[in-house]
Specification:
alpha+beta; eight-stranded antiparallel sheet; AmpC-like; Beta-lactam-related; CubicO group peptidase (Beta-lactamase class C family); Beta-lactam/transpept-like
């Protein structure tokens, strides 16, 4: 169906927000876009790049958004069975001072290792190869007990880039190109700038003058922040973060990456980190994506997976522009002025009669659950009352078996138990028995069922 353009009042509000940020924060240039329905619904630019207003094809350095690409490569290796997230880093790259830190802890910045690489400020100086970098890292770079807390580590992502290179037999960058960028058609995401691109500047704090910033090849630290990209390319990557993966990752793998592994600010968290993705809560929305910062550049990609709405912002200044808040505001503007339409309901194209027979009410003890058939043989199991919780979705893994994807039963196997004649006796889920009737006597309820049955007092 055709996609309707945004209302002029919405476009004006979006442009007003971008223009205000660029003017008030003195950004040499600033570009932003809103993604909806799988496309750029709006984009705007302010300032000048080579004398022109920047647009959707103007490259900016995206800094730590690079980490999301590295994380996607690690998760691809995990899905292929070549990496265990709970395995120590030393299993894949031996000989480092942090070899007992797990791959998952590195992905989530929970390994406790130093934030920056030893030596000079890596973002403004030429990089070194991994063997030299690894030799620089000693016990003093281990700042916290692994798993204790969130401690952002650029060095950790340099290490993950080396892990990818060792297991793929090519550089991390070549793996990004062949496994992610090329399949997704992201032709303007590169390790060094290609015209048209913005130059990086620092803006003087007390005068409206600029200082050019250097842009070196970070080499072993490049996986932490080397890439340059455009609004067009990052709009495609935002859709991957939202689950429209184009086949480069399983959608449930991306959903796993979006789950909070650590939080930054206590129990009522507003910011956290998953497996390679930054997380935020803003105005009742849970956002996923990443911010980026390199000398001369700031960038952000935020995706709201529930509505499929994303915002992207990039600027060529070292500090001062609040790009993350700009992006959350753009999402809020479009969501408030033009709420996303719900996905149009349509019946399943086909259905397995045996799966259809599973649907309906099942009981865990006396508590009713509804089993619903979803797409591609997926099912959901949800409470029918307001108490009890434990709603989960399940992906089929074989005949009569499903794997829990979220909620209490994430990672657990749901199994259909059949009688000798092939009819369904009950469901077995992590030792819990679900029967068609409350405490059904023929369903092998653990502990048995009182032979006197249900009684009145």
């Amino acid at each position: 169906m055709p996609i309707e353009p945004l209302l002029p009042t919405t476009e004006r509000a979006l442009l007003q927000r971008v223009a205000t940020e660029q003017s008030a924060k003195r950004a040499p240039s600033l570009v932003a876009a809103v993604v909806r329905d799988g496309r750029i619904a709006w984009s705007g630019g302010r300032g000048r790049v080579a004398g022109e207003v920047p647009g959707v094809d103007t490259q900016y350095r995206i800094g730590s958004i690079t980490k999301t690409f590295v994380a996607a490569l690690v998760m691809r290796l995990r899905d292929e069975g070549k990496v265990e997230l709970n395995a120590p880093y030393d299993k894949y790259v031996p000989g480092t001072a942090f070899g007992d830190v797990t791959v998952a802890q590195l992905l989530a910045h929970a390994g406790g290792i130093t934030a920056e690489s030893p030596g000079q400020w890596w973002e403004r100086t030429p990089g070194v190869e991994w063997p030299e970098m690894a030799d620089r890292v000693g016990a003093e770079e281990l700042k916290h007990r692994p798993g204790r807390r969130f401690h952002y580590s650029n060095l950790g992502y340099g290490a993950l880039g080396e892990l990818v290179a060792r297991l793929r037999g090519v550089s991390w960058l070549e793996a990004v190109r062949t496994e992610l960028l090329q399949p997704l058609g992201m032709t303007r995401t590169t390790p060094m700038p290609e015209k048209p691109h913005a130059e990086g500047f620092a803006v003087h704090p007390w005068a409206d003058v600029l200082l050019p910033e250097p842009a070196h090849d970070a080499v072993s630290m490049a996986p932490a922040g080397q890439l340059w990209s455009t609004l067009t390319d990052l709009s495609r990557w935002a859709r991957v973060v939202g689950g429209d993966t184009g086949g480069v990752l399983r959608p449930d793998t991306v959903a796993e990456m979006r789950e909070p592994a650590v939080v930054e600010d206590g129990e009522q968290w507003t910011g956290g980190y998953g497996l390679g993705l930054q997380l935020a809560r803003n105005r009742g929305r849970r956002l996923a994506g990443h911010t980026g910062s390199m000398p001369g550049f700031l960038a952000t990609v935020w995706m709201h997976p529930e509505s499929g709405t994303a915002a992207i912002g990039m600027t060529n200044t070292t500090t001062g522009v609040d790009v993350p808040t700009l992006c959350t505001d753009l999402i809020d503007i479009i969501s408030t002025l033009e709420p996303a339409l719900p996905v149009e309901w349509a019946p399943l194209p086909e259905v397995d009669p045996e799966l259809l027979a599973l649907t309906g009410t099942w009981y865990w003890g006396p508590a009713p659950r509804a089993l619903r058939l979803l797409h591609d043989g997926w099912i959901s199991l949800t409470p029918l009352t307001g108490t009890g919780g434990r709603a989960s979705r399940f992906r089929p893994t074989g005949k009569d078996t499903w794997l829990g994807l979220d909620g209490y039963y994430a990672g657990e196997t749901l199994r259909v138990v059949r009688r000798t004649d092939g009819s369904i006796s009950h469901l077995d889920l992590a030792t819990f028995i679900f029967s068609r009737e409350p405490y059904e006597t023929t369903a092998e309820i653990p502990g048995g069922v009182d032979p006197n049955g249900w009684q009145a007092l």
